[in-house]
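Notes from hallway chat w/ T.B., transcribed later so I don't forget. T.B. wanted the structure written out for a chain they're using in a teaching module, and asked if we could keep both sequence and structure tokens in one place. Agreed to drop them here.
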Amino acid sequence: MLNPELATLDPAPIFAALGDRTRLSLLSKLGDGQARSIAALSVDTALTRQAITKHLHVLQDAGLVASLKVGRESRFAARRETLDEARAYLDGVSRQWDETLGRLKAFVESDVP
């Protein structure tokens, strides 16, 4: 049974978005807090701007990046709060497993025949 504290976040869209190397790379580039244009994100990559745009929209739909208009250009920035929510979710799952394994260990080590 899922711990109630984990039920508030639907992690599937976040982890699905993070399940792609290109999107992880884009998020890593945005991890320094600087908002970047699609053109800037396409430097040093073989990806087209159209492909980068597609990946950024997946990240945006998952709440991992936000876009802002600067003149005629869209810039993208990482949304730290969504990553913090995903981390908190994983911490909760980790606690659940630690508790479950602790109960299993206690059972195995008990003197019950």
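Follow-up for T.B.: The mean pLDDT is 89. Might be a good example for the class.
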